[in-house]
Amino acid sequence: MDDEVEVSSTQDCFPNPERQLENEREELVRELERVRADNDTLRSGLTRLSAEKQEPLEEVPPQAPRRRKPKKKELDEYYEGMIEIAPNDIDVFVDHLLELSPEVAGSLLPCLPAYIIFMCIRYQDYIGDTDALHNTVDVYLKKLTDLLKRKANDIDVAVLWLANTLRLLDNLKQYSGVTCFGKENTQEQNEQRLKSDICVHVLRATLSEKASYICQTVLKRMRELVAPLAVSAILENEAVMGISRPKSSFIMDMLLELLTAYKRTLNLYGVDPQLVTNIFMQLFYYLSANALNSLMVRKDFCHWSRGMKILCNLAYLEDWARVEKVQDTWVEEMLAPLKQAAQLLQVRKYDECDVDNLIERCSKLTPTQILTLLQNRITAHVAYNDNVPEAFMQSFKRG
């Protein structure tokens, strides 16, 4: 009996599990009701906000970011296109410009350094500091000379700064106030003309001289590279028009690829198209003269079949000029002496009455050159059987 009482007392010491679960359920129900009430409140708030957003936006205008109003002087400098460089910083300023590599320059606005220097010059002219203006151009030319000496064999560097020097010169001309240089200027550009007339005139002369020197340097380097190919590609190449090129024609391909690379480089850095044409006129003249001089001393080339091959090779050069849009008439004029020499080698019949006609047909050759080619044909290979009759030679000498 006592044992039963003790067991009952021990069970009362533990909580009832069912009661505990019931309490937790009631608590969760109350929490769920509070969440539902909060959701109803949020839903009504969202409905009100949505209705407000459908109203005109003018009622709640967005606040624009505040910007500092520029001063009048700043506006003038901005629209005038000027850059202020402290006189003590000119050397460093030019050094940084000349560090521009051809690879990077090719991806930028053509002649960008020239425009930057010109903006600096305009500011110096605007404030009337002619000493700083002179110094800027002098420092540019001095440091450019040093750069070209260090990079004497780099055509890209020379062409890059030829283009920039010419652009700077053209800008000085355009804003000089001289009528012939500003025919295409707008009224605003004419109003922005440089005021330092005498100073600008002197600088134009200096820059023009420098640009001419750089251009001659570029031409000299180009001629040095095409010289080894001139005779091989024009006189020795065995290509025949209308027939598949033999393996030896790779020399002509090398020459054409080199000319194409020159054209691409000149265009990439913004060289004036007229100057590009003049440069190729000089190159074609050099090719023609070099090949013609070699022909004069190569008696083994002075025969009919070689004349035909020379004409075929010249046709390749003329085709290239047409494709690359170099002026055809100028190219033909530069190649005319060599073409007439090749045509002279193809003459098969001679008599005394043809002397005047022959001289007229070879108007780009001197009488001495014609006589030399005819004499070389006499002493050329007998196998070709196209020697010039002695009677014709005597008649030509008398004529």
TrEMBL record:
Residues 137-399 form the Dilute domain. It comes from Lygus hesperus. InterPro entries: Dilute_dom, Vascular_dev_regulator. One of its GO terms (molecular function) is GTPase binding. Residues 1-24, 39-72 are annotated as: Disordered. It comes from the Eukaryota. It holds the Pfam family DIL. This is Dilute domain-containing protein.
